[in-house]
């Protein structure tokens, strides 16, 4: 009886740990709805290539002051979460204007989908 109770407690602990891990992992980065890569490319060409360059390498327009445009093909971009990239698109960065008033949520996800293809 003691052995079956210990086995039951171990099983409850294992299942609880798995459930907790799933919940915590789900909170780590909320999944954004996928965007349309083709539409994202068209938006990127129209709005972003001036600074980020035609291939996203950060080789577009250079500023006299402040940081250079981000190289969107870099490993650091690949490691950046979708939520952080969407935040950068919406809120802007130094020398990058906020796009939340110019791009819809869907358009921002489309641009993000295209940017993800650059960092591969």
Describe the structure.
- The protein is mostly helical and 120 residues long.
- Helices cover 59% and strands 0% of the residues.
- It is built from six helices and no strands.
- It has helices at 2-28, 37-47, 49-52, 75-79, 82-91, 105-118.
What's the alpha carbon Rg, rounded to whole Å?
21 Å
Low-pLDDT windows of residues: 22-30
Q: Average pLDDT across residues?
A: 82
SS elements, strand count: 0
Largest sheet: none
> How much beta, percentage-wise?
under 5%
Q: What is the count of DSSP helices, taking H or I runs of 4+ residues?
A: 6
Q: How many angstroms separate the termini?
A: 57 Å
SSE order: HHHHHH
Tell me the overall shape: elongated
Class from secondary-structure proportions? mainly alpha
Tell me roughly what share of residues is in helical segments: 55-70%
Write the layout of secondary structure elements.
Layout: H1 2-28, H2 37-47, H3 49-52, H4 75-79, H5 82-91, H6 105-118
Helix pairs in contact: 2-6
């Amino acid at each position: 009886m003691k052995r079956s109770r210990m086995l039951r407690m171990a099983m409850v602990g294992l299942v609880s740990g798995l459930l907790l891990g799933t919940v915590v992992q789900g909170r780590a980065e909320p999944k954004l709805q996928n965007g349309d890569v083709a539409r994202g490319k068209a938006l990127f060409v129209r709005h972003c290539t001036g600074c980020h360059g035609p291939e996203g390498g950060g080789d577009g327009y250079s500023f006299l002051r402040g940081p250079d445009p981000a190289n969107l093909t870099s490993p650091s971009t690949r490691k950046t979460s979708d939520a952080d990239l969407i935040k950068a698109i919406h809120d802007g960065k130094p020398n990058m204007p906020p796009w939340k008033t110019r791009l819809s949520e869907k358009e921002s996800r489309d641009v993000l989908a295209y940017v993800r293809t650059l960092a591969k």
